[in-house]
Amino acid sequence: MHRNLIKLAVAASCLTLATAAVAASADDYKAAAAKAEAAIKAAHAARNEWTTTADEMKAAKKAADAGNFDEAVKHAHEAEALANASIAQAKEQEKLWPDAVIR
Amino acid sequence: MLRKVCLAAAIVAVTAQPLLAASGVDPQADFKAFRKYFTERFPKVPLNDFVNGPYSMDEGLRKQWKAIDEFPPYEFAVDQGKQMFETPFKNGKTYADCFPNKGIGVRQLYPMFDEKSGEVVTLDVAINKCREANGEKPYDYSKDDMAALTAYMAYTSRGKPMDIKIPNDPRALAAYKAGEEYFYTRRGQLNFSCASCHVQNPGNHIRSEVLAPALGILNAMPIYRSAWGGMGTTSRRLRSCNSQVRGTPLSAESPEYRNVEYFLSYMANGLPISGPGARP
């Protein structure tokens, strides 16, 4: 029983490593970029974009153009996260700004 | 007749109060609190000196400024602006035809609320409206021609007290409120608001710069900024502030920028115009 469990764990680890080693494809990049663009569009609508979001998207495109889709996906994910953070900031500030007013 | 006029005025005055109360906007109360905050925090700074920004906060910087001001770096812009102001448009008209008092000594009246459009109009916007009405192309809002022209117009208004009016019109009050909201809202990846620097930290350093107090901060506009190596308008300064906190700047003279200029200028009512200014 114990041996079987060890074998299963080793097999699972190998599978995980194999999955991680698979390089990202152009389609992966396109999917990641589309999600990032949607978040950026929402941040634009909230009138609260960050310069770093645009920087990450530029880096993603540059990496994709060079055929480095691992890097491209990484930067696109980062851009999406930053855009979502700026949207969260805008929503939070809608409630919080009056606390800062001089009274 | 006089009685009727007085009665009408009284009715207007009484009915005007609920509009303010209902909107939850009270610019006069904000004004008093704003003034009290800065004068109590910096009791040694004479009220009119707040318009000199960082120089009112730092003695060493003030000495440098006094030395620089013997040959003001904005002087060329004032001369250029004067020439531009006096040069007729192709149709023979001039800027003087667009402004009260022929455009001389009027800087302190801007921004003003335009009842026709329902929007805040800054001096820079009024200049471009004048140009377009006379068949000329509008200027870029950030620097160069616009900065030179507003430098001259500010120069003719030096010493005049800021005189911003907020009519009891729900649209004007909404614009004022939106300006106040913009001023106190944190933005950018660094999570700074305008107030983070100019209310909570005037006089403190941010990197090598001494932060200016928000009170009277626009009275010196436009400015020659050494960091820019040239002149810049209020729009340029606001866009630059946004970038510094890693926020994507809005378009120059966007409603948000015009509204925050309206709010800050109202807070500076009574303080003298000192523009054009020079800043590090």
CATH topology of the largest domain in chain B: Cytochrome Bc1 Complex, Chain D, domain 2
Percent helix of chain B: 40-55%
Order of helices and strands of chain A: HHHH
Overall geometry of chain A comes to elongated
Net shape of chain B: globular
Regions of chain A with pLDDT < 50 over 5+ consecutive residues? 14-19
Count the beta strands of chain B.
7
- What's the number of helices of chain A? 4
| Coarse structural class of chain A | mainly alpha
Radius of gyration of chain B: 19 Å
**Percent helix range of chain A:** over 70%
Major sheet of chain B, described briefly? 3 strands, mixed
Our estimate of the beta-strand percent of chain B is 5-15%
Largest interface comes to: A-B, 21 and 22 residues
Secondary structure: number of strands of chain A: 0
Strand content of chain A: under 5%
Average pLDDT figure of chain A: 88
Strands of the biggest beta sheet of chain B: in what spatial order?
6-5-7
Order of helices and strands of chain B: HHHHEEHHHHEEEEHHE
| Multimeric status of the protein | heterodimer
Average pLDDT of chain B works out at 93
What do these coordinates show?
The complex is a heterodimer of chains A (103) and B (280). Chain A has 103 residues and is mainly alpha-helical. Chain A has one domain (24-100). Chain A is built from four helices and no strands. Chain A has helices spanning 2-21, 26-45, 51-65, 69-96. Chain A starts with a helix and ends in a 7-residue tail after the last helix. Mean pLDDT of chain A is 88; it is low at 14-19. Chain B is mainly alpha-helical and 280 residues long. Chain B has two domains: 23-72 and 168-279, Cytochrome c-like domain (Cytochrome Bc1 Complex, Chain D, domain 2, Orthogonal Bundle); 75-155, Orthogonal Bundle (Cytochrome Bc1 Complex, Chain D, domain 2). Chain B has ten helices and seven strands. Chain B has helices at residues 2-23, 27-41, 59-68, 75-86, 123-133, 144-155, 170-184, 194-198, 234-244, 255-267; strands spanning 112-114, 119-121, 205-206, 209-210, 223-225, 230-232, 277-279. In chain B, the strands form three sheets. In chain B, strands 6-5-7 form a three-stranded mixed β-sheet. Chain B has a two-stranded antiparallel ribbon with strand order 1-2. In chain B, a hairpin with a 2-residue loop joins strand 3 (205-206) and strand 4 (209-210). In chain B, helix 4 packs across helix 6. The N and C termini of chain B lie far apart (59 Å). The chains are: A mainly alpha (103), B mainly alpha (280). Chains A and B meet through helix 3 and helix 4 of A and helix 2 and helix 7 of B.
